[in-house]
Specification:
D-Maltodextrin-Binding Protein, domain 2, single chain, five-stranded mixed β-sheet, 11 helices, 10 strands, alpha/beta
Length: about 250
């Protein structure tokens, strides 16, 4: 009986030591990656990042902003490993201009543009754009933010751009554009569907995809992260079922 107790104690001690060793190996192998992410993907990226850390042990740090602004930072030497853009143009340029790894570019999401108002009854469709001639309409800067460019193309497709141009309020990126609407500094605005999914309420109209070019969002591995295992692991994780579920939850298409 005493021998059995000693064996049981030895077995438990061995398991404890093994667990500590395995944990130490995991920590030693765990790394960190820094990722530049288009502002529209903020909520989805944070959730994907949490799942990534839980699954792999790697840590991920995000820097959010307008795609154009982030690309400028990359060209000026910002230490990002991955670039999740809101378009396909900048990732292609990153490869052509020598900032990214050839063959690493992939489309990670298809964005949807919506016209949103904090007021429950204001937006019932495109008619909301002309129902109130004094309404201020927020859009992201079309020069740096693809969702802003899509908003301009939508207004042009509806033959409303010239009419509404004096009432447009421009945000630096899609996150600031949403804040303009949510805080009442604009009566309505063109934002990403993911933003209103993350914070339900108000009224909105999903802009038909036929009114603007597709908002295909590409990711590319930057040369700064080419030798970083955590960066490559996150790039692979973006294509996983776990990441796909998060993207669909926030309204992104495949």
């Amino acid at each position: 009986m005493q021998l059995f107790a000693w064996c049981n104690l030895l077995f438990r001690a061995s398991l404890t030591i093994l667990s500590v060793l395995l944990f130490s190996v995991t920590v030693a192998r765990a790394g960190e990656t820094t990722v530049a992410v288009a502002a529209n993907f903020t909520a989805a990226a944070k959730e994907i990042g949490a799942r990534f850390a839980e699954t792999t042990g790697h840590r991920v740090k995000f820097s959010f902003g307008a795609t154009g602004q982030l690309y400028t930072q990359i060209t000026q030497g910002a230490p990002y490993d991955l670039f999740l853009a809101a378009d396909q143009v900048r990732p292609v340029r990153a490869i052509e201009e020598g900032f990214a790894v050839r063959g690493s570019r992939a489309t990670y999401a298809l964005g949807r543009l919506v016209l949103f108002s904090r007021d429950l009854g204001r937006v019932q469709g495109k008619a909301a754009l002309t129902a109130d001639r004094s309404a201020r309409i927020a859009i992201a800067n079309p020069k740096t933010a693809p969702y802003g460019a899509a908003a301009v193309e939508t207004l042009k497709s509806l033959d409303l751009y010239e009419t509404l141009a004096p009432r447009l309020v421009r945000g630096a990126n899609i996150a600031q554009t949403y804040q303009f609407v949510y805080t009442g500094n604009a009566d309505m605005g063109f934002v990403a569907q993911a933003q209103i999914t993350a914070r339900p309420g108000g009224s909105y109209w999903i802009v038909p995809a036929t009114l603007h070019p597709p908002i295909a969002q590409d990711v590319v591995l930057l040369k700064h992260g080419a030798q970083n295992p955590a960066a490559r692991a996150f790039l692979a994780f973006l294509k996983s079922d776990a990441a796909r579920q998060v993207k669909e939850k926030f309204g992104y298409g495949r």
